[in-house]
UniProtKB/TrEMBL annotation:
<keyword id="KW-0808">Transferase</keyword>
<protein>
    <recommendedName>
        <fullName>Ribosomal RNA small subunit methyltransferase E</fullName>
        <ecNumber>2.1.1.193</ecNumber>
    </recommendedName>
</protein>
<keyword id="KW-0949">S-adenosyl-L-methionine</keyword>
<keyword id="KW-0698">rRNA processing</keyword>
<dbReference type="Pfam" id="PF20260">
    <property type="entry name" value="PUA_4"/>
</dbReference>
<dbReference type="GO" id="GO:0070475">
    <property type="term" value="P:rRNA base methylation"/>
</dbReference>
<comment type="function">
    <text>Specifically methylates the N3 position of the uracil ring of uridine 1498 (m3U1498) in 16S rRNA. Acts on the fully assembled 30S ribosomal subunit.</text>
</comment>
<dbReference type="InterPro" id="IPR006700">
    <property type="entry name" value="RsmE"/>
</dbReference>
<dbReference type="InterPro" id="IPR029026">
    <property type="entry name" value="tRNA_m1G_MTases_N"/>
</dbReference>
<dbReference type="InterPro" id="IPR046886">
    <property type="entry name" value="RsmE_MTase_dom"/>
</dbReference>
<feature type="domain" description="Ribosomal RNA small subunit methyltransferase E PUA-like">
    <location>
        <begin position="24"/>
        <end position="68"/>
    </location>
</feature>
<dbReference type="InterPro" id="IPR046887">
    <property type="entry name" value="RsmE_PUA-like"/>
</dbReference>
<keyword id="KW-0963">Cytoplasm</keyword>
<dbReference type="Pfam" id="PF04452">
    <property type="entry name" value="Methyltrans_RNA"/>
</dbReference>
<dbReference type="InterPro" id="IPR029028">
    <property type="entry name" value="Alpha/beta_knot_MTases"/>
</dbReference>
<feature type="domain" description="Ribosomal RNA small subunit methyltransferase E methyltransferase">
    <location>
        <begin position="80"/>
        <end position="237"/>
    </location>
</feature>
<dbReference type="GO" id="GO:0070042">
    <property type="term" value="F:rRNA (uridine-N3-)-methyltransferase activity"/>
</dbReference>
Length: 249
C-alpha cells in the first residue's frame, strides 16, 4: 500500500537521519484522520520537488516526531506541460485543473477569455485564486506528487500572450482545426527545453481575435478527435496525449 503523503516545508531541508518535529497541521490529520501511530512510515513533500520518507517516533494530535529514512528530489519536467484553462461555469474549470494535476501538468494559467461566461470580479479575485491554489495542492497530494503545479495570475483576452515565450510549443484546442493534437505533438520529446502549452477555450469558444493573436505568435490550432469535449475534459484529454507523446506514460 502506498504511504500517506503530507505537505511539510521541513522536507526541503531534510537529510537522512534527521529528527523532525511536525506541528498540528500535519499531526492532526496524521493521527485523527489517517490513524497513524509510532513505527509507521509516511512521506513528507515540500511541493517543490523534495520528498522525505520518515518513520514516526512519537505521535499526538498536536505534534508528530519523525526520523527521516530516505530523501529524494524530483527535478522540474522538461518540457514543462502548461494548461491555459478558460474560466467556465458550473466549476468545470475546477474539474479540469484537478484532473490536469493528477495527469501531471506543471503550470496552470486561469484565462478570462472574451467569451467566458464565468469571471473573477476584482473583489473576489484573491478568493478565487486561493480556491484554485488549494485545489491544486489537494490534487497533488492525492496524486502523491513531490512537485506541485505553478498557478499563474489571471489573464484576460489577448493579454494571455504576455505569459507565453518564444520557445513555447503552443497548441490551441479548436473544433475547426485540420490537424489532430496527437499528430502535432508526435515530434515532442522528453528532455527538450521549453514548454508545451495547451490552450482550452470557454463554452462559447475562442474568439477570432484571440485565435488570430495566438496564431501570430506561432500557436497551432489542433483537434482532439471527432467529438466535442466540455471545458472540464478537453484539457485533461490533451495532456494525456502530450504525456504519451513524451513517453512519460
Amino acid at each position: 500500500m502506498s504511504l500517506p503523503v503530507f505537505l511539510a516545508a521541513e522536507a526541503a531541508r531534510a537529510e537522512v537521519g534527521d529528527s523532525l518535529v511536525l506541528g498540528e497541521d500535519v499531526a492532526g490529520h496524521a493521527v485523527r484522520v489517517r490513524r497513524l501511530s509510532p513505527g509507521e512510515e509516511l512521506d513528507l513533500v515540500d511541493g517543490e520537488g523534495a520528498r522525505a520518507r520518515a518513520r514516526i517516533a512519537a505521535a499526538s494530535a498536536h505534534e508528530l516526531s519523525v526520523e527521516v529514512t530516505a530523501v529524494t528530489r524530483t527535478p522540474p519536467s522538461t518540457p514543462a506541460l502548461v494548461l491555459v484553462q478558460a474560466l467556465a461555469k458550473g466549476d468545470r474549470d475546477l474539474q479540469a485543473i484537478e484532473q490536469a494535476t493528477e495527469i501531471g501538468v506543471d503550470e496552470v494559467v486561469p484565462w478570462a477569455a472574451e467569451r467566458s461566461i464565468a469571471d473573477w470580479p476584482e473583489k473576489k479575485r484573491d478568493k478565487m485564486a486561493t480556491k484554485w491554489e488549494n485545489l491544486l495542492r489537494a490534487a497533488s497530494l492525492q496524486a502523491r506528487r513531490s512537485r506541485f503545479p505553478i498557478l499563474h495570475g489571471l489573464v484576460r483576452g489577448t493579454r494571455l500572450l504576455a505569459v507565453l515565450t518564444e520557445t513555447d510549443r503552443i497548441f490551441v484546442l479548436h473544433e475547426s482545426a485540420g490537424t489532430r493534437l496527437s499528430e502535432a505533438v508526435a515530434d515532442v520529446r522528453d528532455g527538450q527545453s521549453g514548454r508545451v502549452v495547451l490552450v482550452v477555450g470557454p463554452e462559447g469558444g475562442i474568439s477570432e481575435a484571440e485565435l488570430a493573436a495566438l496564431s501570430a505568435v506561432g500557436a497551432t490550432p489542433v483537434l482532439l478527435g471527432p467529438t466535442i469535449l466540455r471545458s472540464s475534459s478537453a484539457g485533461p484529454a490533451g495532456l494525456v496525449m502530450a504525456q504519451c507523446a513524451l513517453g512519460r506514460w
